[in-house]
């Protein structure tokens, strides 16, 4: 045999020398759920180890995470049902929970990168990402609400705004709205290829944000498609996105690869709630070695072409020293 690939695997020194992909704490974005009140830390039943924090405890969680080497955080609010309405007006009301959280994190930790989620669902009495009329999701009318929300986030100090709604034209619309209000420096991380997925189940438990009727298939993508992701990416790149995101992560590694081959923008992968819960549940049952399974998952995103990875495992990975 002339060629023996095993020679490059024969020792740890050689294996490390020829390793193609690497994972660093700077690649990780930690999504955190927030809730109104004081001194609250409620575990999400379907996501063991993940909590909804009141702002005081959010600040502690961010501080601990920063001390471990994390710098980027994506915040998601759990909103009381009584504050929801069909137009998600709570989402941009001055002084709301989310805006206070952004302001306080940026005030205490100016060097942290705060990423905010733009979509109507946590605030919508219909539980949809857009305005619902007679069972239909209105696209252009929704853009107006999203723009108000994004501007409020920018004013509160958001570093990166991440629209997760999948309305057409939103990146260009938000870019224009932010620029014309003096927020040219605020970045847009587009949920470019967001699929209508079963893997968001635990997230919707965490925020109590599931649709009251119907599903999200008229705006989120069909899991069977990848060419459509290219169309979405072309639009986002053209409209001024700074990052392209693929979501969920694990079942869509080919989509990450396709976008990373065609576009020079950084690609983010969202290792979503259901993916987290699968590994957690199997590990808790002793069916998987959690450290090995988590690290294999995360390096898989890097190999596929993702620069940044949004993952609920972020803090635990650093706490337990799994990167070393
Ligand atoms: C809502 C949104 C969702 C997630 C992030 N933003 C859920 C949905 O679209 O229903 C899911 C994240 C996760 O499952 O971890 N716009």
TrEMBL record:
Family membership: Belongs to the ALAD family.
Cellular component terms (Gene Ontology): cytosol
EC code: 4.2.1.24
Lineage: Bacteria, Pseudomonadati, Bacteroidota, Sphingobacteriia, Sphingobacteriales
GO biological process, one term: heme biosynthetic process
Pathway: Porphyrin-containing compound metabolism; protoporphyrin-IX biosynthesis; coproporphyrinogen-III from 5-aminolevulinate: step 1/4
Positions that bind Mg(2+): 232
Protein name as catalogued: Delta-aminolevulinic acid dehydratase
Top-level taxonomic group: Bacteria
CDD domains listed in its UniProt record: ALAD_PBGS_aspartate_rich
Keyword entries, A-Z: Heme biosynthesis, Lyase, Magnesium, Metal-binding, Porphyrin biosynthesis
Active site, renumbered: 194, 247
Catalyzed reactions per annotation: 2 5-aminolevulinate = porphobilinogen + 2 H2O + H(+)
Assembly, per entry: Homooctamer.
Enzyme kind, highest EC tier: lyase
Single GO term (MF): porphobilinogen synthase activity
